[in-house]
Amino acid sequence: MTIVHQQTVQMKQVSHGNFLMRNVLKHNVVFNEGTRGDAAYILTEGKIEISGIIEGHKKVFAILKPISIFGEMALFLDDNSRTATAIALEDSKVIVVTKDDLEEYMRDSPKVISSIITVLVSRLKSTTKKAMKVPSTGMGVVRILDLFASNGTMTLRYDTAIKSMADTFVTTTDRIEQYIHGLAGQGLLAVGRDEHDGRIITLLERNLVHEVMKRKD
């Protein structure tokens, strides 16, 4: 059995000085299941294994190749506990994306962030449905919608958004719809139809997280 050691992190500044490039040597850990995390990673070189412990045995969920985003749930959930382990299968490079990085970079480069958000929302979670236990799904939905609103995207296709979020949070479309209609009942979004009679979600607040938290107080 290969003994995996946590690598001493070596980073250099990239992009606007906010994003960091991390070099991860073969067999080294990016993050461990159960630890707290506040960042996602974009794999630019190498290969990353995503795995977890199921009933006492290791189960490999995915083998990622460039360009892939992983660890993204930490950007959306109140509980930042990692639900899987990420290990480099070969020497790799990843860009570290924290919540603060994402928000600042979004203001400067909305087109780039729009593509990142799209990947985040439609991510591969179907391969880990039996293993993933994602807490705070309601606030996760709010955070995703908040990112779209912050990026200037105020209208989403209903069916696509519901399915993508159900896959992302490893839950049913019915449960996501309950959250969506709950937000609609609070006047934070509207569910309607476009000119082609397709169902749409229209966001009515640009700072959705703030509005939700304010109404909880």
From TrEMBL:
Annotated Cyclic nucleotide-binding domain residues: 28-123
Top-level taxon in the UniProt lineage: Bacteria
Pfam families on file: cNMP_binding (PF00027)
GO cellular component, one term: cytosol
Any one GO molecular-function label of the UniProt entry: DNA-binding transcription factor activity
PROSITE patterns: CNMP_BINDING_2 (PS00889), CNMP_BINDING_3 (PS50042)
Protein name from the UniProt record: Cyclic nucleotide-binding protein
